[in-house]
């Protein structure tokens, strides 16, 4: 995948697929440690120990529509090819936390891409979902939370407003 936002979309979709109604996305760029971290935490059904052991293997999926699950395998490959790693922790009926790290100064690091647009695509129609997005750049941070607005996600005009709000927030960090 050419943009990290596409990996983020897969992580968000995995969380929704797991029945989560609370999803927290954190992107951290630490220029001193030369580290970029993407973390998605959810309160979905979790992953059993048996699946967890092999979850980033391309043939591991609980989808019934096909036999391959590529999202985590591709993210692991992308992170490792940029000197980073993929970590997954999960508890059944509690939730899952996926953290991918990348060397910020690695020549193969893909661009972040359109995170605000990705959030909008993901949230479309997800009425009731509580979503937060924290983006940290060294000592500065931007936080977006849908808490209190979760019934508005089904209205296109609010989706566009949220997208613009996130874009403006990210611009203030640049
Ligand atoms: N947040 C999560 N909560 C619960 N289970 C998860 C979560 N993320 C991944 N899984 C489990 O790991 C499997 C593999 O995930 P992965 O993203 O690699 O593939 P997929 O979602 O099945 O298919 P694809 O990403 O190719 O559309 C999923 O089928 C699911 O069983
Ligand atoms: Mg997936």
Key words describing this protein structure:
binds adenosine-5'-triphosphate; globular; alpha+beta; binds magnesium ion; 5 helices; 6-stranded mixed sheet; Heat Shock Protein 90; 174 residues
Structure description:
This protein has helices at residues 4-17, 49-52, 71-81, 115-123, 156-173; strands at residues 22-30, 35-42, 85-91, 95-103, 130-137, 140-145. Strand 1 (22-30) and strand 2 (35-42) form a beta hairpin. Strands 3-4-2-1-5-6 form a six-stranded mixed sheet, with helices on one face. It has one domain (4-173): Histidine kinase-like ATPase, C-terminal domain (Heat Shock Protein 90). It has 174 residues and is α+β, with helices and mostly antiparallel strands. The mean pLDDT is 93. It has five helices and six strands; from the N terminus they run αββααββαββα. The radius of gyration is 16 Å and the shape is globular. Bound molecules: adenosine-5'-triphosphate and magnesium ion. Magnesium ion is lined by residues 10, 13-14, 69, 71. Magnesium ion binds at residues 10, 13-14, 69, 71.
Summarize this, please?
The chain has 5 helices and 6 strands, in the order αββααββαββα.
Terminal-residue CA separation: 24 Å
What's the CATH architecture?
A: 2-Layer Sandwich
Give the class-level CATH name: Alpha Beta
Helix count from the secondary structure assignment: 5
Mean pLDDT reading: 93
What percent of residues adopt helix (DSSP H or I)? Answer: 25-40%
Number of domains in the coordinates? Answer: 1
Ligand list: adenosine-5'-triphosphate, magnesium ion
CATH fold descriptor? Heat Shock Protein 90
Number of DSSP-assigned strands: 6
CATH superfamily: Histidine kinase-like ATPase, C-terminal domain
Compute the gyration radius: what is it? 16 Å
Helical/strand content category = alpha+beta
Q: Could you give the order of the helices and strands?
A: HEEHHEEHEEH
Largest sheet, spatial ordering of strands:
3-4-2-1-5-6
- Major beta-sheet overview: 6 strands, mixed
- What is the general shape? globular
Please mark out the parts with pLDDT under 50 across 5 or more consecutive residues, or reply none.
none
């Amino acid at each position: 995948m050419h943009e990290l936002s596409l990996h983020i979309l897969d992580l968000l979709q995995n969380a929704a697929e797991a029945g989560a109604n609370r999803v927290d996305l954190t992107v951290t760029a630490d220029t001193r440690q030369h580290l970029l971290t993407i973390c998605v935490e959810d309160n979905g059904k979790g992953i059993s120990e048996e699946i967890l052991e092999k979850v980033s293997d391309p043939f591991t999926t609980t989808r019934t529509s096909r036999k391959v699950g590529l999202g985590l395998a591709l993210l692991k490959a992308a992170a490792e090819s940029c000197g980073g790693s993929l970590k997954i922790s999960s508890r059944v009926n509690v939730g899952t936390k996926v953290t991918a790290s990348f060397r910020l100064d690695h020549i193969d690091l893909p661009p972040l891409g359109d995170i605000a647009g990705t959030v909008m695509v993901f949230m479309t129609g997800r009425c009731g979902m509580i979503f937060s997005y924290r983006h940290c750049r060294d000592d500065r941070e931007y936080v977006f939370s849908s808490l209190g607005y979760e019934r508005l996600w089904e209205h296109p005009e609010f989706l566009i407003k949220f997208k613009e709000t996130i874009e403006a927030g990210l611009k203030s960090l640049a």
